[in-house]
Write a structure and sequence with these properties.
alpha/beta, DNA polymerase, domain 1, TIM Barrel, 9-stranded mixed sheet, elongated, binds S-adenosyl-L-homocysteine, binds iron/sulfur cluster
């Protein structure tokens, strides 16, 4: 499993490329059903030997059990013939990402360190609020994009997460929150009712750039949105991109969830530096893609994320330029100001609270909403941009230890 990533080239920050790295097949040879849509489950059943009509019926039933009911034991699927369960269990798996560690912050935020079946680690965060609960889902192990203020961007190992690992995060969260619908609890459409639930919203804001793993993110979110699947409304799902312009229209057309854009700077010079993908797709191109984003309107605004970095992007002039740009492109927009979350070795400071207030006021005064995001889960490194797996931190510690040993080994002069 280590050979899988050891030779992987790290794309340059100015010209990042997608990482089509595939997961290794399961070592037990079974086919993982989590992450597959109905049609793929049907095809897998047929390939395993079921006759076509039966495969179609079973696929529909199994889809419902897996995603709508959270069942992973074939024998508990009551409408499937008892005699068939062992046959299914021999050939197919219904699994969750493995939990390496679960942490809870003093503010209630939870973070899970997860491991894929082929040994890659990634993280997922749950943020409870009074009126909602938001699951922050990862799309990749690490990220190729190297934004200078983001810890994830410093991870060396990168692989796209498979649909099983993306949908698996939402399913795992439902497991831990005990939120699978019980018998008789289904609405008229068999769907999932938000009423009284903790997990109400999903943001693709964990590790990775979701638009560099487009197919898997799309296929996963389709299952999450399916009324007979996980049943979350597209209005409660937000995808955040650092600005992969060529994929934005397709995201709107093929996924249709809310869009958030990591803008973070209003001049070419600063954005080139802190969000290096800007060297490839500049601010004007990005804002034009936002203006063209299918489904954005005054009821469903695009969120511009803006991390507040002291003396870097936080002046009143920056705020005024942000307003000018939003108006110039006539964007149905809101701005989300994110106080910078520091991490060990980061090169920035967070703007002072008065600076953030002044920045926010200028935007509000122009009629654009610009709330300041409250940092959550900082004590367990779960806040925006702090995600970097323990395994990677360990390897860093290892490097430090080795350096110390080398220093000790140096002959004294
Ligand atoms: N890769 C995607 C989504 C994940 S990051 C993207 O960049 O949009 C979610 C948000 O947290 C992004 O706006 C990101 O720029 C921001 N962020 C990254 N590092 C941060 C940090 N150290 N402090 C505050 N926000 C940060
Ligand atoms: Fe990747 Fe987003 Fe972090 Fe940039 S901010 S390095 S795109 S995860």
């Amino acid at each position: 499993m280590s050979a899988d990533t050891a030779l992987m080239p790290i794309p340059g920050s100015a010209d990042p490329v997608t990482v089509p790295r595939k997961a290794q097949p399961r070592s037990d040879g079974k086919v993982e059903l989590v992450g597959l849509p109905r049609e793929a489950i049907r095809a897998a059943l047929e390939e395993a030997g079921l006759e076509p009509r039966q495969a179609k019926l079973r696929a529909k039933q199994i889809f419902h059990w897996i995603y709508n009911r959270g069942e992973s034991d074939f024998t508990a699927m009551t409408d499937i013939a008892k005699a068939q369960s062992p046959w299914l269990a021999e050939r197919f798996a219904i699994t969750r990402p493995q939990v390496v560690e679960a942490q809870v912050s003093t503010d209630g935020t939870r973070k899970w360190l997860l491991r894929t079946h082929d040994g890659h680690e990634y993280e997922m965060v749950f943020i409870p609020d009074a009126d909602r609960g938001t699951l922050c889902v990862s799309s990749q192990v690490g990220c190729t994009l190297n934004c200078t203020f983001c810890h994830t961007g410093t991870m060396k190992l990168v692989r796209n997460l498979e649909p099983a690992e993306i949908v698996g995060q939402v399913m795992l969260a439902r497991d831990s929150l005990g939120e699978w619908p019980k018998l008789g609890e289904h609405g008229a459409d068999g769907g999932y009712s938000q009423e009284g639930r903790m997990l109400t919203n999903i943001v693709m804001m964990g590790m990775g750039e979701p638009l560099y793993n487009f197919d898997n993110v799309r296929d996963s979110l389709k299952i999450v949105m399916d009324g007979d699947g996980l049943g979350l409304s597209k209005r409660r799902i937000t995808l955040s991109t650092s600005g992969v312009v060529p994929m934005m229209a397709r995201a709107g057309e093929e996924i249709g969830v809310n869009l958030a854009v990591s803008l973070h700077a209003v001049t070419k010079q600063v954005r080139d530096e802190i969000v290096p993908i800007n060297r490839k797709y500049g601010i004007e191109q990005l804002l034009q893609a936002c203006a063209d984003y299918p489904g954005a309107n005054n009821a469903r605004r695009i969120t511009f994320e803006y991390v507040m970095l002291k003396d870097k992007n936080d002046s009143d002039a920056d705020a005024r330029e942000l307003v000018r740009l939003i108006k110039a492109y006539d964007l149905p927009a809101k701005v989300n100001l994110i106080p910078f979350n520091p991490w060990e070795g980061s090169a920035y400071l967070c703007s002072d609270p008065e600076r953030i207030r002044s920045f926010s006021n200028i935007i509000f005064a122009a009629g654009i909403s610009a709330p300041v995001r409250t940092p959550r889960g900082r004590d367990i490194d779960a806040a925006c941009g702090q995600l970097k797996t323990a395994a990677e931190k360990k390897s860093r510690a290892q490097i430090d230890r080795e350096a110390a040993v080398t220093a000790v080994d140096e002959p004294a002069s």
